Hints:
Layout: H1 2-30, E1 36-42, E2 46-54, E3 58-63, E4 68-72, E5 76-83, H2 86-109, H3 122-145, E6 149-152, H4 161-168
Helix pairs in contact: 1-2, 1-3, 2-3
Amino acid sequence: MITIKWKGLSLLLFFITMASFVYGQAEETKTKTSHYSVFAITNHRLIKGDLMRLNAESIAIKTTDNQQIELDILAIKQLKFRHKGSIGKGLLIGAISGMGVGVAIGFLSGDDPEGTWIRFTAADKAVAFGGFMAIPGMIAGGIIGSKCIKIPIENKQSLDNKQMQYLKRFER
Length: 172
């Protein structure tokens, strides 16, 4: 009787995992442009927000508190760009992937033999391994999702055409 409940729970986890992947793929096809957060590192501070305007001598950033700050290129040491929501998405995908691997390992290991002191079924192992493997999967997904694009500016007088074309894709 307990085995049926564990199998039902395992099947439910499997269908939730599949539904989240299908939903995630449908969401990605709806959005055509990526949205990045910009981190402008100057000599004295870090400014986080959205890149609103860019030209060869200055950039305009709309900060998280809706202030628009204009920065001279000479004051900027480095620009970093990260997809909005990429850390959370990485955590979720990593946890689901880890859980899927754990469930597969649990089912593939099979039932324990009769006569052992503690006996687990394959479904019991699938639930236990699935929950356990979700944690390292989530950690790996968070690390991968926190990746950002770093562009050194190093107090240049102005940006050249190649840099301008590259940076334009991060503009809102």
